[in-house]
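For consistency, the fold was encoded as tokens, which produced the following:
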Amino acid sequence: MSHWPDLAALELLVAVADHGSLAAGARAVEMAQPNASRSMARLERSVGVPLLQRSTRGSTLTPAGLLVTDWARSVVTAARRLVDGAALLGQDASGTLSLRVSASQTVAEHLLPRWLAGVRSAFPDSRVQVTVHNSHDVVQDVLHGTADVGFIESPKPPSGVHRAVVARDELVLVVHPQHPWAARHDPVSTAELAATPLITREAGSGTRMALDEALGRPVEALLEMPSNAAVRVSVQAGSAPAVLSRLAVEDALAAGTLVQVPAVLDLHRELRAVWIGPRRTQGLAAELIAEAQRTGCGSARGRPVAP
């Protein structure tokens, strides 16, 4: 081969393999379809073998394309590591690496400290500023440029930002041990939960948005509280049921001060990093997202999340 293959074309090839078609791969790397077709044609000429099987139904990888993709994946990973490392070296001329993080309450209270500890062990001189909001306000921080990266619990990825899943979480229905539901064995139906006044987080919180979406309608709120802790204390006082992240109530469940009630509703959700600017984060933001994905908590039980 007389010259090196184009890295952007290799990244596109990997995306085609990961997303199932040239069109989907082009969207994943934010490349226009005509440019993607030309890029793949140049790559095929460069490596000397056909990589795509083209048809009226779209383009998929040939057997040779699958093999080349396997080799290309390590090249793309190494190139990303080079770019991220160089960004870290040049991020701050004073030698101090800095990062502004905005995080939802559940993430900030239960996950972010572990992620930051991992980053600081690799970059002990780094400086990180953390702001805690609900998910709606985290997105606004990112869009307005007051945060380099945000972490949210919203069920639907917001528009105008790049995003990546970093962990998965589970919402659970909890009550006081003396509540009538505490002894239930049959799951609470969706209709029953929708008709029951609950103690909830405020509008704009990821937990509230996830619950509203799962119910298919706004929750019937008996009390709206500004924090997970306030909701938990209100339930422990015997006020009413609540739906909270397992992360926020696992200690109370273990201590017996709250009881989990089975529910028909599927309340699993994804936690995401969000940012603006280049599609791929660089510097400390990239390191923090990678650390979050390495140690992502599954459903609060320690199962890692694949990047």
Summary: The chain has two domains: 7-90, 94-307. Residues 114 and 295 are 8 Å apart (CA to CA). Residues 63-90 form the longest helix (28 residues). The two ends are 32 Å apart (CA to CA).
